[in-house]
User: What shape does this take?
Amino acid sequence: MRFCREVSSSCETRGLTVDIDRDLLLLMLRRMWMIRNFELKVMEVHSAGEFTGAAHPYIGEEAVAVGACAALEDTDYIAGNHRSHGHPIAKGGRVDKAMAELYGRVDGYCKGKGGSMHLADYSIGILGESGILGSSVPVAVGAALAAHIKGENFVSLAFFGDGASNQGALHESMNLASVWNLPMIFLCENNQYAVTTSYAETVAVEHVSDRASAYNMPGILVDGQDVIAMYEATAEAVKRARSGQGPTLIEGLTYRYEEHSLGLGRVRRGEYRTEEEIESWRKRDPLTILEGTLISQGMATREECDAINAETVDEVEKATEFARNSPFPKPEELFDDMWANPIPFP
Amino acid sequence: MAQTVFVEAINQAISEEMARDENVFIMGEDIRRAVYGATQDLLNDYGEKRVLDTPLSENGFFGAAIGASLVGMRPIVETLTSFMWVGMDQLISQAAKMRYMFGGQATLPVVFRATMFYGGGAAAHHSDRSYPMFMNMPGIKIVVPSNPADMKGLLKAAVRDDDPTIVFEDGTLFGMRGDVPDNADLPQGELVVPFGEAKIVREGTDVTVVGIGGAVNIAAAVADQLATEGISVEVIDPRTLVPFDKKTVLDSVEKTGRLVIADPAHKVCSAASEIASIVAEEGFWSLQAPIQKVASEQVHIPFSPALEKLVYPDFAKITAGVKRTLES
Ligand SMILES: Cc1ncc(C[n+]2csc(CCOP(=O)(O)OP(=O)(O)O)c2C)c(N)n1
Ligand SMILES: [Mg+2]
Assistant: This one.
């Protein structure tokens, strides 16, 4: 039986091999802090009972979505999964509308109909987060198909977990995207567990990215704690996609610090992973790594990094107030948005 | 009699069946660590070969369970209703159809335990009450327990039944306590509830209410309340929808002349629709008022608690349904 992947060293910084604009690096730092602070707030208010239902914290994995989405334009599409808050924030979504959605309020992204697992913002290409594993991936392939048919330049990216990489839908999608040569990026967030099950016990290959060879596309294994590496790999895949070279599978190797879902009280962490393992990954915190790089490269000061963190804390605080003050949907809204061309209800 | 929680009753049934017959095994996602509670201690008691954690591949492992059943095993699969969509091809194209298509050669003693977690802010992707869709498809037996004792006894019957069965476990009842008889107190030494035998939960003379799954208990509470207002409600729990015990329902309607059906599924082509049509066809002359279906609104399950609570049949809606039958 194989266990969790080894991690190399603690808190490393890196030299910049590619030319990334400082503004983009700071934007990535901001979005990563935004996700971190959003999730911390969500955990606080969820445990205080301010809203109910499942919520899957993205803490520890921020660099994956932020690096990937930084390589995309607003006109590109993404689709995601149940661990859903990081993806829209990474793509530039609004935290106030996201928080209001978690609270089930009318000002939420989906007017309170979707909740935590189903955020979407069609105005910036977020086609929606799916609670059913693997289910949104073929849909994202459809967006790439449209780009292909219309000869347009947008790309489509689907986020999915190591666990969902075992769904037939993933494999069918990779084959489709490959044979049709679609501008598609399959982005596996390998946090190494599906609830309590280690991916080493359920994935037949060593790395999820190894699966790409079966579909004749590049499979890239990336350090998912390193946002710059995630950005570089995705930017390369986007370039391939936009220039008609077809799909890429990227695997960001990462780690979930918190338990699978808020409110899933039965799962005790010691039962399936050790404190040492969690600690070893916390030492490679994606925020620490990016800030280390920025400071050591003279691109930002400690104070500037701290200010960005503090600004996002504020913004999340305001978003939470916004959510709290937003009204619940009215009873008659139950029937809204069922149909594009409404028909009588039976 | 021991007070037993619904989810423990599931666990007892599985464990007893695994102890009784070594061909019984169980598979599902994260069942070794019993994420949903029902598979507690099974790994310890029956070992890795008979307690399988699967990859997240419902179509694949549903099919593997079906295949194992064809050659003599008695698999139990743990899943949620909402994940069954992913395994639908295997459930329909294989489990439901093989025996008939192959002229009776195939026997499929496979059980799918499908939990319905609705009513708790799980939103559209995790709140399905999908039994009516399977009722429409010949070839699958359908079980809808409403209390811990029936849960246990029906699940044990499902494991022993030679046909594919889906046990729709109502997640709103997972924490429900109820009396489950001790095996030592039972003449047969164990609790097995046969399929196709409805249970009269409350006897009454004015109106018949048929409840499905969790709605049975709400209907019983309505009956208790209306009894104080001088309205006598008979509550029937069909316990299995396929096979369906028509006789108990028709006999009751013959007595009361009025029928309400409380069904947490969407109202169109629901279990309620089917029961209403049976009574309209076969019990029409007993009816003194139009049949009332009290089922879920024909919309998806909204996340917001402000909206979700409006969707399902509840105490007020069932009460109103009963009163409508008494207006005419
Ligand atoms: C089709 C389907 N099966 C099972 C589930 C239940 N479930 C929700 S999340 C999860 C684990 C997912 O693991 P992974 O894909 O690695 O994503 P992670 O949670 O680690 O981000 C499971 C089993 C589901 N939502 N959909
Ligand atoms: Mg995972």
